[in-house]
Description:
Layout: E1 2-8, H1 28-43, E2 50-54, H2 57-67, E3 76-80, H3 82-85, H4 88-96, E4 104-108, H5 112-120, E5 121-124, H6 126-133, E6 141-146, E7 158-164
Parallel strand pairs: 1-4, 2-3, 2-4, 5-7
Antiparallel strand pairs: 1-6, 6-7
Amino acid sequence: MYRLFLLRHAEASPAKPGGADIDRPLTERGRQDAIALGERMRAGEHLPAFVFCSSARRTQETWQALASQLAGPVPQILNAHELYRGGIDDYRILIASAPTDGPILVIGHNPVITQLASTLVRDGDPAAMKRLTAGFPTCGLATIDFAESWSHIGPRGGTLAAFLLPGS
């Protein structure tokens, strides 16, 4: 089984006048949500072996806060600019190139995270499916299982095992 975690970054501050979107930091609530989600991931053994993280400051800060709560070996991390401005195909190409058979965490942005999850999921846990179809909030984490290797995943090939939020 191949396990993919799709994470939308935690809540970020609005862009400052004249500031670049890529430089938006997390809010204090965003930091706390990422820490809480990390605790939930650790408790449920939702632990990645490899991380693809967008180059945006808010995704980097989400990973740092979340990772502070994880146990076990530190996963290898690839900061991927494609996840910042890229589309669904860019995300899928990165996933297909993963250098591990272990669980992968992708930390990215909406609307692509929502589109990717909706494209990849065939069915799954009813409560998780309900959460996913209600929208992909900041610091939401979809856990999707596949029978095929990363290079072979495609539309409707995954089963939604869980959809975690920081406080529920």
